[in-house]
Design goal:
Length: 134
């Protein structure tokens, strides 16, 4: 019985480590953020962060007030509909070491009535939630 309990606990703990679990965990999130390989890299905090959107470049930016944590995603087009595929360049601070990818394909997984947009890149396991502030 004890062995069964340990197996169940370990199974539950590792369920989020699978690629499917990473996307599922990302889809359960509801905060403006950037997640990479199942780990939140940057999360928007209304008291300490700023949001920006440049409609000429289709670029979303999230910065904390100290400019220590940030992410930028420049999209080929404004993401508006679920299932839409877009290409984007993305960069962020991560674990204080900036990371950057160019020409990634993102799928729009969800768009909420509040203007939140869930973008998912399967290959690199990058999930980004932005807000349409225009």
């Amino acid at each position: 019985m004890k062995r069964l309990l340990i197996i169940l606990i370990l199974t539950a703990m590792t369920a989020g480590c699978t690629p499917e679990g990473r996307e599922a965990a990302f889809m359960d999130a509801s905060d403006i953020s950037l997640t990479w390989k199942g780990s939140v890299q940057v999360m928007f905090n209304e008291q300490t962060c700023q949001l920006a959107y440049n409609d000429q470049r289709n670029e979303y930016r999230v910065y904390d007030d100290k400019l220590g944590d940030w992410f930028v995603i420049s999209c080929s087009q404004k993401p508006v509909a679920e299932g839409e595929l877009i290409t984007a360049d993305v960069s962020w601070t991560g674990d204080r070491t900036p990371k950057s990818y160019k020409g990634l394909e993102f799928i729009v997984r969800r768009v909420s009535e509040e203007g939140l947009i869930w973008l998912w890149n399967e290959r690199n396991k990058i999930g980004i939630i932005v807000k349409d502030i225009v």
